[in-house]
Amino acid sequence: MGLVLNIFQWHLGMYAWDYTPTYRGFDSFYGYYTGAEGYVDHVNGIHASTGYKGLDLRNGTEPVWTENGTYSTELFATEAERIIASHDTSKPLFLYLPHQAVHSGNPDNPLQAPQKYIDKFPHIQHPGRRTFAAMVSALDDAVGNVTKALSARGMLENSVIIFTTDNGGPAAGFDMNYASNWPLRGVKNTLWEGGVHGTGFVHSPLIKQPKRTTHELLHVCDLLPTIYALAGGDSTELKNLDGTNVWETISRGVESPRVEVLHNIDPKRKTAALRYGDYKIILGEAYKGAWDGWYPPEGVTTNRSEETNHAPRWSGPLKIKCGEKPTNASTNCKPRDNPCVFNIKEDPCEFNNIADWNQPLLNFLMGRLEAYSATAVPIRNQPTDPRGNPKYHGGVWSPWINLTDTGGSTNELFGSLQ
Description:
By secondary structure, this protein is an alpha+beta fold. It has helices at residues 72-86, 115-118, 127-152, 193-196, 223-230, 247-252, 359-374; strands spanning 4-9, 28-32, 43-47, 52-55, 58-59, 62-63, 93-96, 161-164, 200-203, 260-266, 271-276, 279-283, 340-343. A hairpin with a 4-residue loop joins β10 (260-266) and β11 (271-276).
């Protein structure tokens, strides 16, 4: 199809060059390989206490040393604008722009934003929440600038912009961050709705019924066949996919072909969750249940009722209606001991575990999890390899091994879901 592919964050493996973006089909890469770093110095020091610290910013395969002091949200947006300005508009363009914002950075300064953005939120009293708002504001400007660049090139009329999170927010100080999933339950890296229910929108002049919200079930796996079809491909020819082309759902509002989402099966933690229709099953316990609660955003002003209101401040169709919170909401589900089932449509905040009086439904959902588990490949996480330490690669996070050097045992598959 003649696509030109570009990417800004990877986080999909980089122990060998063969697994880095420009070796995996992307025409260009400007960004970082690992999962987190400083927003201004572009150094990943997440594990600096154990001696692992180095620059993680590249243009193609070459380290970039000249941008120390440039805020990454603005840096990546500027590079995206440059790509758009120089693009041959006779060819399709796939621009994958996964911003660093609003991920936590290094432990010594996890949330960073230019002062001009922090100054926009004097009414937010909590310093972490204020900086988080500033980071979101910078991200908002970056998205706006990229959209303007598309418009200036005459590309916006035939473009589809998909904006989405990759997971729920790290709220209430989780991962040293102050996002908010309120009023949903849980945080990032948990299987509660606050950890798996994503925020997103799709903007395009190609949408036949615009300016609406949808409650149809969609999953990130659906993006590949949807984008492939939009670019002129036949998504039915793609093999071994977990996703489906959902453009008609997005564009015209037709019923989604998706009825099921496997949230996760984690053999190491022994946690799992699955959504089927309106129902969700969850079992196992992350962080020993320490992040299983409901976390209102830190106070904005002393006279706002945000911390006691179970609904967001907006009043449109996006409003989440939790219903009355029962006194046993925190105790009626103990997924470490027994699977829990929730009706997400009627109970999006996961107040009421209905497993005990819905045994046939519980059996069905457990059967779906077991079917997925039977087809899972073994986890392949390996122990830390000291050869990957940036100190051996000029102070830069870099591939360190040839594929012929790899090997070793893998962990056994999660044997039982119960």
